[in-house]
Specification:
globular, single chain, 57% strand, eight-stranded antiparallel sheet, 0% helix, mainly beta
Amino acid sequence: MKERKGSNWCFWKDVEAEEAASGVERRVLAYCDELMCVENTFKKGAIGAMHHHPHTQITYVASGSFSFTIGDKTYVVKQGDTLLKQNDIVHGCECLEDGILVDFFTPMREDFVK
């Protein structure tokens, strides 16, 4: 996967999904040192465990419905909604309806590449 780092082109069909959690598949798409795009496909009932990290993260809800917690607030989010998670804020979700979340991280997540 590291050979894709900094590449101008990233074709979805060429990116192998990996299990991120039960019912969650992750595809690390285009990335460089400063920015990373990741697609997460969730099955209904799957959990994105509460966690935090030193990266700023924006999540775009491409499809589905999720109960999402950021800090001390929880909302149901649906297709088209966008969430901002500042560095080190605790966040997590539960998938209410099969869906896809697209995450953008700055800087890139070294722990997501092998």
